[in-house]
Amino acid sequence: MTAHQNGSTSTEFSDFYLNCFVRSPSWQHWLSLPLSLLFLLAMGANTILLITIRLEASLHEPMYYLLSLLSLLDMALCLTVIPKVLAIFWFDLRSISFFACFLQMFTMNSIFAMESCTFMVMAYDRYVAICHPLRYLSIITDQFVVKAAIFILARSIFLTVPIPILSGCLHYCLENVIENCLCANMSVSKLSCGDIIINRLYQFACGWTLLGFDLILIFLSYTLILRAVLKLKSEGAVAKALSTCGSHFILILFFSTVLLVFVFTLVVEKKVSSDVPVLLNILHHVIPPALNPIVYGVRTQEIKQGIQRLLKKGW
């Protein structure tokens, strides 16, 4: 429950209240079923993918270790957001403590940064595999994956941990109702009585520095890959190279497109319903995690064969 102290100048709260789709209550009814199905799909598909990679010796390669890391991040992202959203939809449990709110804020931001960096490392992996195939085994090793994972974790945590700290240091004295289904940084910060310009600037600088830097390197990697592929004289080699990179590029494109759409709706928020950015924010936490393992499973022959072998063993 919200604890507050009434006075002439301020009111102090011990928790926030997530004002989720109160302007469009019908959204909760039709959204709860597909959202829960997408959540189960994301958790189930990523679990199957992780088990397949773990049990199939032929998949014990750096590329699939990176894919395992992506699956773990997807599952963590879903678990951070979707259960609370469904609890609001089904049981009207809108209250969230300050600690839980800022923890969710940190987790969401750090996982997004980790996923972006993972996509960048995976693009580099494909670049080396196609543009420098003879050196691939000496460059992309198990040690490389370990170092890459440490870099992804350290960079993301170091750069995103100030976001909840800056928001947590603000004084919340007038309002504790968050106009969102989750504890997004700016949705929380704008409730404070103080100046939030530093929060806005850091969020903007951190987001565009991390995502922008990663996207530039990803684009550069695929530009070099495309140039190398077009030089191949064998049609079979071209098709195989494009197929290998196709699933990866589709997921990166979708991840980036959803972010751009979300940013666009925030820019034109006066012309669209305020619930639209909230809806897109929720979907961005569940649709990519649900699609990632499916796209890889369908388009990657080795994973498809590994799943089929495991199913035959199960029967």
UniProtKB/TrEMBL annotation:
Position of the signal peptide: none
GO cellular component assignments: plasma membrane
Keyword Membrane (UniProt): yes
Compartments (UniProt record): Membrane
Boundaries of every G-protein coupled receptors family 1 profile domain copy: 45-296
Swiss-Prot/TrEMBL keywords: G-protein coupled receptor, Membrane, Olfaction, Receptor, Sensory transduction, Transducer, Transmembrane, Transmembrane helix
Top-rank taxon, per record: Eukaryota
GO molecular function list: G protein-coupled receptor activity; olfactory receptor activity
PROSITE patterns assigned: G_PROTEIN_RECEP_F1_2 (PS50262)
GO biological process, one term: cellular response to lipid
The protein's name in its UniProt record: Olfactory receptor 56A3-like
Organism whose genome encodes this protein: Bos indicus x Bos taurus
High-level lineage: Eukaryota, Metazoa, Chordata, Craniata, Vertebrata
Gene: LOC113904826
